[in-house]
Write a structure and sequence with these properties.
transmembrane helix, elongated, mainly alpha, DUF4190, 183 residues
């Protein structure tokens, strides 16, 4: 009987029982933490020797193929994003109505436009084209209140002006009107 027949592990030619990997034809990978080789005598470190005459020079460092490949994709395939669309394209009507009604507190006249846009916005809500019904209702309430207050204020100003003209105008003005003129 030969020594190979007695050795239970055919990959271990020494017969010691220790695992010995099969030799492969590939070279071992280079150690990424190893120091670079020293420059040959007479050259500065980090420079490459000139190419032999008649050959093409190597590309400059930093150019060429990337060192690492892109990572493989995992999971489901990626699809393009859906186009951005507004789910309710007419929400701007109620928002505009609210802004114009609130601006009517300062200007007075924009409350009418706020009421108009509030009605248009509520119609869009009924058709399912908008979802901000509360803002449209607020635009209508504020707008109508400001319109009513504007009408009452206009009537009060006209009534006061009529009373003032009646008291201070004509042939027999009130005594307090004449006292204003004498001062």
């Amino acid at each position: 009987m030969s020594t190979q027949d007695q050795n239970p592990n055919p990959q271990d030619p020494t017969g010691s029982g220790a695992y010995q990997p099969e030799p492969s034809g590939e070279a071992a990978p280079a150690d990424p933490y190893a120091q670079p080789p020293a420059a040959p005598y007479g050259q500065q470190p980090g420079t490459t020797p000139p190419p032999p005459p008649g050959s093409t020079p190597p590309p400059p460092p930093g150019y060429g193929a990337p060192q690492y490949a892109a990572p493989p994709a995992y999971g489901a395939p990626q699809y393009a994003a859906a186009p951005m669309t507004t789910p309710y394209p007419k929400n701007w009507m109620n928002t505009t109505g609210m802004v114009l009604s609130l601006l009517g507190l300062i200007t007075g006249i924009t409350a009418i436009a706020g009421v108009i846009f509030g009605h248009l916005g509520l119609a869009a809500v009924k058709r399912g084209e908008a979802d901000n019904r509360g803002q449209g209702v607020a635009a209508l309430v504020i707008g109508y209140i400001l319109i009513v207050l504007g009408i009452v204020a206009t009537i009060a100003i006209i009534a006061f002006a009529g009373w003032f003209v009646n008291e201070c105008g004509g042939d027999n003005p009130a005594s307090w009107c004449t006292d204003l003129d004498s001062q």
